[in-house]
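Subject: Interface between my chains keeps coming out wrong

I've been trying for a while to get a sensible model of this assembly. When I model each chain on its own everything looks fine, but I need the whole thing in one frame so I can look at the contacts. Pasting all components below, labels as-is. Any help appreciated, I'm running out of ideas.
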Amino acid sequence: MASKIELLIADITKIKADGIVNAANTTLLGGGGVDGAIHRAAGPKLLEECLSLHGCKTGEAKITLGYNLPAKYIIHTVGPVWKDGKSKEDFFLAQCYFNSLDIASKYGLKTIAFPSISTGAYRFPTQKAAEIALTEIKKFTENKAIPETVMMILFSQKDFQIYNDAYRRIFNV
Ligand code: ADP
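Reply #2:
Try treating it as a single job with all components included. I did that and got this:
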Protein backbone atom coordinates (compact mmCIF):
# COMPACT_ATOMS: atom_id res chain seq x y z
CA MET A 1 0.00 0.00 0.00
CA ALA A 2 1.24 3.51 -0.77
CA SER A 3 2.49 5.68 2.10
CA LYS A 4 0.57 8.57 3.56
CA ILE A 5 1.97 12.03 2.80
CA GLU A 6 1.13 14.93 5.11
CA LEU A 7 1.93 18.64 4.82
CA LEU A 8 2.11 20.53 8.13
CA ILE A 9 3.10 23.96 9.36
CA ALA A 10 5.32 23.28 12.38
CA ASP A 11 8.74 23.43 14.00
CA ILE A 12 10.45 20.20 12.95
CA THR A 13 12.36 19.96 16.27
CA LYS A 14 9.00 19.33 17.98
CA ILE A 15 7.87 16.50 15.70
CA LYS A 16 7.56 13.07 17.29
CA ALA A 17 8.52 10.92 14.31
CA ASP A 18 10.86 7.93 14.01
CA GLY A 19 13.13 10.22 12.01
CA ILE A 20 13.42 13.87 11.08
CA VAL A 21 15.58 15.14 8.26
CA ASN A 22 18.11 17.93 8.76
CA ALA A 23 19.00 20.32 5.93
CA ALA A 24 22.67 20.27 6.92
CA ASN A 25 25.85 21.58 5.29
CA THR A 26 28.82 19.52 4.11
CA THR A 27 30.66 19.78 7.45
CA LEU A 28 27.70 18.28 9.39
CA LEU A 29 28.86 20.44 12.28
CA GLY A 30 25.81 22.68 12.56
CA GLY A 31 24.84 26.00 11.03
CA GLY A 32 21.92 28.40 10.81
CA GLY A 33 18.26 27.83 9.99
CA VAL A 34 16.78 24.41 10.61
CA ASP A 35 20.25 22.91 11.16
CA GLY A 36 20.96 25.28 14.07
CA ALA A 37 17.52 24.65 15.56
CA ILE A 38 18.02 20.87 15.40
CA HIS A 39 21.47 21.04 17.04
CA ARG A 40 20.18 23.32 19.82
CA ALA A 41 17.20 21.09 20.54
CA ALA A 42 19.09 17.78 20.29
CA GLY A 43 21.93 18.93 22.58
CA PRO A 44 25.74 18.67 22.44
CA LYS A 45 25.91 14.87 22.03
CA LEU A 46 24.63 15.36 18.48
CA LEU A 47 27.71 17.41 17.55
CA GLU A 48 29.92 14.71 19.07
CA GLU A 49 28.34 12.02 16.87
CA CYS A 50 28.44 14.31 13.81
CA LEU A 51 32.18 14.85 14.33
CA SER A 52 32.70 11.10 13.86
CA LEU A 53 30.94 11.14 10.45
CA HIS A 54 33.57 13.28 8.63
CA GLY A 55 31.12 15.39 6.67
CA CYS A 56 28.63 14.61 3.93
CA LYS A 57 28.58 15.37 0.20
CA THR A 58 25.81 17.35 -1.50
CA GLY A 59 22.87 15.05 -2.23
CA GLU A 60 24.01 12.36 0.20
CA ALA A 61 22.58 11.52 3.63
CA LYS A 62 23.89 10.19 6.97
CA ILE A 63 21.97 9.12 10.09
CA THR A 64 22.51 9.87 13.79
CA LEU A 65 20.51 9.43 16.96
CA GLY A 66 18.02 12.15 17.90
CA TYR A 67 19.29 12.66 21.48
CA ASN A 68 17.03 15.21 23.26
CA LEU A 69 14.62 15.48 20.33
CA PRO A 70 11.25 13.72 20.37
CA ALA A 71 12.42 12.01 17.14
CA LYS A 72 14.51 8.82 17.52
CA TYR A 73 16.83 9.51 14.58
CA ILE A 74 18.07 12.45 12.53
CA ILE A 75 18.90 11.96 8.86
CA HIS A 76 21.33 14.68 7.80
CA THR A 77 21.33 15.54 4.12
CA VAL A 78 23.07 18.33 2.24
CA GLY A 79 20.99 20.23 -0.27
CA PRO A 80 22.46 22.07 -3.25
CA VAL A 81 23.15 25.79 -3.09
CA TRP A 82 21.10 27.44 -5.88
CA LYS A 83 23.39 29.01 -8.47
CA ASP A 84 21.82 29.45 -11.91
CA GLY A 85 19.56 26.41 -12.29
CA LYS A 86 22.07 24.87 -14.70
CA SER A 87 24.43 23.37 -12.15
CA LYS A 88 22.52 20.11 -11.53
CA GLU A 89 20.64 21.72 -8.61
CA ASP A 90 17.46 19.72 -9.45
CA PHE A 91 19.36 16.45 -9.57
CA PHE A 92 21.09 17.03 -6.23
CA LEU A 93 17.87 18.08 -4.50
CA ALA A 94 16.10 14.93 -5.76
CA GLN A 95 19.07 12.89 -4.48
CA CYS A 96 18.60 14.39 -0.99
CA TYR A 97 15.02 13.13 -0.83
CA PHE A 98 15.85 9.75 -2.37
CA ASN A 99 18.87 9.06 -0.15
CA SER A 100 17.04 10.20 3.02
CA LEU A 101 14.07 7.94 2.25
CA ASP A 102 16.43 5.09 1.41
CA ILE A 103 18.15 5.35 4.81
CA ALA A 104 14.77 5.65 6.55
CA SER A 105 13.56 2.51 4.85
CA LYS A 106 16.79 0.59 5.65
CA TYR A 107 16.41 1.56 9.34
CA GLY A 108 12.73 0.59 9.30
CA LEU A 109 11.57 4.11 10.18
CA LYS A 110 7.79 4.19 9.85
CA THR A 111 7.38 7.95 10.12
CA ILE A 112 9.75 10.54 8.70
CA ALA A 113 9.53 14.34 8.56
CA PHE A 114 11.31 16.58 6.02
CA PRO A 115 11.92 20.31 6.14
CA SER A 116 11.95 22.26 2.86
CA ILE A 117 15.56 21.43 1.95
CA SER A 118 17.65 24.17 0.24
CA THR A 119 14.91 26.83 0.13
CA GLY A 120 16.30 28.97 2.96
CA ALA A 121 19.92 30.12 3.02
CA TYR A 122 20.63 28.00 -0.08
CA ARG A 123 18.05 30.03 -2.10
CA PHE A 124 16.51 27.19 -4.16
CA PRO A 125 13.18 28.53 -5.56
CA THR A 126 10.45 27.10 -3.33
CA GLN A 127 7.96 26.16 -6.05
CA LYS A 128 10.54 24.18 -8.00
CA ALA A 129 11.80 22.59 -4.77
CA ALA A 130 8.25 21.58 -3.78
CA GLU A 131 7.73 19.84 -7.12
CA ILE A 132 11.00 17.95 -6.84
CA ALA A 133 10.40 17.00 -3.19
CA LEU A 134 6.88 15.69 -3.71
CA THR A 135 7.68 13.93 -6.99
CA GLU A 136 10.60 12.14 -5.37
CA ILE A 137 8.54 11.19 -2.28
CA LYS A 138 5.72 9.91 -4.51
CA LYS A 139 8.11 7.83 -6.63
CA PHE A 140 9.85 6.33 -3.62
CA THR A 141 6.79 5.49 -1.59
CA GLU A 142 4.69 3.98 -4.37
CA ASN A 143 4.38 0.27 -3.63
CA LYS A 144 6.57 0.52 -0.52
CA ALA A 145 5.35 -0.29 2.98
CA ILE A 146 8.05 1.70 4.81
CA PRO A 147 8.06 4.60 5.56
CA GLU A 148 4.32 4.49 6.25
CA THR A 149 4.00 8.24 6.76
CA VAL A 150 6.08 11.01 5.21
CA MET A 151 5.56 14.52 6.58
CA MET A 152 6.67 17.74 4.90
CA ILE A 153 7.14 20.32 7.64
CA LEU A 154 6.73 23.88 6.37
CA PHE A 155 7.82 26.84 8.43
CA SER A 156 5.44 29.49 7.03
CA GLN A 157 1.92 29.75 5.67
CA LYS A 158 3.41 30.90 2.35
CA ASP A 159 5.59 27.80 2.00
CA PHE A 160 2.66 25.60 3.03
CA GLN A 161 0.55 27.13 0.25
CA ILE A 162 3.28 26.51 -2.33
CA TYR A 163 3.73 22.87 -1.27
CA ASN A 164 -0.03 22.35 -1.09
CA ASP A 165 -0.50 23.63 -4.66
CA ALA A 166 2.31 21.37 -5.88
CA TYR A 167 0.79 18.43 -3.98
CA ARG A 168 -2.55 18.91 -5.72
CA ARG A 169 -0.90 19.00 -9.15
CA ILE A 170 1.33 15.98 -8.56
CA PHE A 171 -1.24 13.78 -6.81
CA ASN A 172 -4.18 14.94 -8.95
CA VAL A 173 -6.38 15.83 -5.98
P1 ADP B 1 19.07 25.47 3.50
O1 ADP B 1 20.46 25.93 3.87
O2 ADP B 1 19.05 24.02 3.04
O3 ADP B 1 18.39 26.41 2.56
P2 ADP B 1 17.60 26.54 5.81
O4 ADP B 1 17.59 25.98 7.20
O5 ADP B 1 18.21 27.89 5.61
O6 ADP B 1 18.27 25.40 4.91
O7 ADP B 1 16.11 26.59 5.28
C1 ADP B 1 15.37 25.46 4.86
C2 ADP B 1 13.91 25.63 5.26
O8 ADP B 1 13.77 25.29 6.66
C3 ADP B 1 13.38 27.06 5.13
O9 ADP B 1 12.08 26.98 4.54
C4 ADP B 1 13.26 27.53 6.58
O10 ADP B 1 12.21 28.46 6.75
C5 ADP B 1 12.91 26.23 7.27
N1 ADP B 1 13.12 26.16 8.73
C6 ADP B 1 13.93 26.90 9.52
N2 ADP B 1 13.83 26.51 10.82
C7 ADP B 1 12.92 25.47 10.83
C8 ADP B 1 12.34 24.66 11.86
N3 ADP B 1 12.69 24.79 13.15
N4 ADP B 1 11.43 23.70 11.51
C9 ADP B 1 11.07 23.54 10.21
N5 ADP B 1 11.57 24.28 9.19
C10 ADP B 1 12.47 25.24 9.50
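Reply #3:
Confirming on my end. The pocket of adenosine-5'-diphosphate is lined by residues 11-13, 23, 33-35, 37, 79, 115-122, 153, 155, 159 (CB under 6 Å).
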